[in-house]
Amino acid sequence: MMDVATRVGVSRQLVGLAFRNEAGVSSSTRERIFEAASELGYSPDIAARSLRRRSSNYIGVLFNPAHSSADDIVEALYAAAHARGYNLILGALTATRDERDAITELLGFRTESVILISPETPVNELRKLAKRLPVISIGRPLPQGVCSAVRSDGQRGIAAAVDHLVELGHRDIAYVLTRSLPEFAARHQGYVTAMDRHGLPSRVREVDGDFTEESGASAAESLLAEPVMPTAVVCSNDHAAMGLINRLLRAGLRVPEDVSVTGYDDSRIARLSFVDLTSVRQDPEEMSTAAVEAAVQMMSDQESAPQERMIVPTLVIRGSTGRPRSEAQLHPR
């Protein structure tokens, strides 16, 4: 900082004010300070700065890269946090790194609150964590009072997918159920309720394992082994839909000419031109803004009670759904 101050011809204190974005520095001087810092290869030590203050201005974020919507939510969280003067510390889950390890590391960075994207931590541990600092869960239904939560209305989202398929003329609609998905119960209920409302029989295929492409491929194998394929399949997330579509194509079936497929999350893979997947959009920007606002509110008022915010999802219709095949039955090839 002294090197920057010397080059610009100002005091070290003025350089500090500029980097803290505080008043007392003209716009022209601030620009000269940043230009000199860039030329000298200097950037402020954020960790050291946080130690000198009572507030670290850090919000910790726990996420699993395997979740189809995690990258969109993290990206939106950065914008929402920055708009309120906060920085993010990310904690990623891997095959050798569980949630407890990641959360412990986030706390070590003096985070003032933590946002957990689709956490699997037991409820009793979340309740203990929420007594230490504000905790906001994104995507997981939790008992009232455990911690603040933001999630999409999975029941309504899946029901919208079923309604869309029924409007196209489908009557034999299957559902891929993966219990490891944090919101599996609400999404499953949305399917059952919608099918009952239309007077149609439910056709659920529960698959073991996680919610990646393999679960969708496993569901496709199960459906292909049956005498008659459904005309449409509703998947509980985009990764499962991708795996199911790939396996159907390998079996010689066409999407959507033979089988229509829907996903959930409207993730980046759904938006790829060669995938063109009809999917339920959770609106990561709205969810992230709500999560950051909840964190900021609880940090400023530690007596505030945990709240749940429900985001209404929307169905994005693309090329993976169409009218049902004209044949009365389609046998797997």
From TrEMBL:
Listed GO MF terms: DNA-binding transcription factor activity; transcription cis-regulatory region binding
Keywords, alphabetical: DNA-binding, Transcription, Transcription regulation
Cited SMART domains: HTH_LACI (SM00354)
InterPro entries, A to Z: HTH_LacI (IPR000843), LacI/GalR-like_sensor (IPR046335), Lambda_DNA-bd_dom_sf (IPR010982), Peripla_BP_I (IPR028082)
HTH lacI-type domain sequence ranges: 1-53
PANTHER family associated with the record: LACI-RELATED TRANSCRIPTIONAL REPRESSOR, LACTOSE OPERON REPRESSOR
Name used for this protein in its record: LacI family transcriptional regulator
